[in-house]
Amino acid sequence: MIDVDLARRLRDAGLRWHPRPGDRFTIEQGDFDSAEVFTISDMTVEAHDYPTGTVLGFNGTTEWALDSVAATDALWLPREDQLRDLLGRSFESLVRRHASGPGGAGDDETVAYEVRTRAPGSPAGSDLTSHLAGAADDAYALALLSFVEASLRLD
């Protein structure tokens, strides 16, 4: 699952969320622990669209008193497939990398994931940028963050 701080950076960079079943989120208000993750489902958490905004309604939650929360008070935690879809045609590849630990032989092997993207309009395999993270979701999120931030630059 994507790192919460990285999800905040994506939101702050301008990534917008349109809640759908299967989406994961945390609540960014009051005494809620951002480590508590909720999933939108027609059975427990539904997104209700109103002219004033989207409200996430909690159905049958007797263990704590929360009827609903504004989507603006929730932080979307996009899944790997959603991040890849948002990258669209700029996505080139995902590579799993292995690197030996700093002590050499016998150390645990470190795994990293590299997402390669290309600049919009570039032919496949050219003008590639790499985004490396310890989890595939985070590598995709870093690539998307770079893409969103680049689209906001005036140069």
Commentary on this structure:
Helices cover 23% and strands 31% of the residues. With 155 residues, the protein is an alpha+beta fold. It starts with a helix and ends with a helix.
Task: Sum up the structure in keywords.
3-stranded antiparallel beta sheet
Structure in a nutshell:
This protein has 155 residues and is of the alpha+beta class. Helices cover 23% and strands 31% of the residues.
The N- and C-terminal alpha carbons lie at a distance of: 33 Å
Number of helices: 3
What's the alpha carbon Rg, rounded to whole Å? 18 Å
Number-wise, the strands total: 9
Which runs of at least 5 residues are low in confidence (pLDDT < 50)? none
The biggest sheet, with number of strands, parallel, antiparallel or mixed sense and barrel status, is: 3 strands, antiparallel
Oligomer: single chain
What is the percent of helical residues? Answer: 10-25%
Structural class: alpha+beta
Kindly report the average pLDDT value.
83
Strand order of the largest sheet: 2-1-6
Strand composition percent: 25-35%
